């Protein structure tokens, strides 16, 4: 069986990425390992009093994202593709690569929005980072029209 790590960020392109990963998994007899890496600063806000932490905001956000992740897993399983999921907080690139190693992944499937290099300079590109750092193949699915 081919192990496929599929990082999900719940963006507008998640459905398209999911479709591509399911098609790939069906073609190669793969299992999808969904992962969502949440930022570590979910419950923090800045205001007149400086930085403040609101644990209830973080708890609610994490609960909602876990529900969404479970729903995506069920959609994949409904397409006759084996799947499991994980959610962690931290630095996305590091966690995704650690998870891929842990699951003996054969591929990491990522989306590419086709943004300019200037966008990457200011915002960064997780897909670009993983294609540079990963020791396993990264399959990039274009997300633009």
From TrEMBL:
Pfam families linked to this entry: Usp (PF00582)
Record keywords: Cytoplasm
Domain of life: Bacteria
Subcellular localization, as worded in the UniProt entry: Cytoplasm
Main location: cytoplasm
InterPro entries in UniProt: Rossmann-like_a/b/a_fold (IPR014729), Universal_stress_UspA (IPR006015), UspA (IPR006016)
UniProt key word Transferase: no
Stretches assigned to the UspA domain: 3-142
GO terms under cellular component: cytoplasm
Keyword Cytoplasm attached: yes
Family designation: Belongs to the universal stress protein A family.
Protein name from the UniProt record: Universal stress protein
């Amino acid at each position: 069986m081919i192990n496929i790590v599929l990082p999900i960020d719940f963006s507008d392109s998640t459905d398209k990425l999911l479709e591509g990963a399911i098609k790939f998994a069906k073609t190669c007899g793969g299992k999808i390992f969904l992962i969502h890496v949440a930022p570590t600063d979910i419950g923090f806000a800045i205001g007149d009093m400086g930085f403040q932490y609101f644990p209830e905001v973080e708890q609610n956000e994490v609960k909602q994202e876990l529900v969404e992740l479970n729903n995506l897993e069920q959609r994949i399983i409904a397409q006759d593709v084996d799947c499991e999921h994980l959610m962690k907080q931290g630095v996305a690139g590091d966690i995704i690569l650690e998870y891929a190693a842990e699951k003996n992944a054969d591929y990491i499937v990522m989306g590419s929005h086709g943004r300019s290099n200037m966008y990457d300079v200011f915002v960064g590109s997780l897909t670009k980072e993983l294609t540079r750092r990963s020791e396993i193949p990264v399959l990039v699915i274009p997300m633009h029209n």
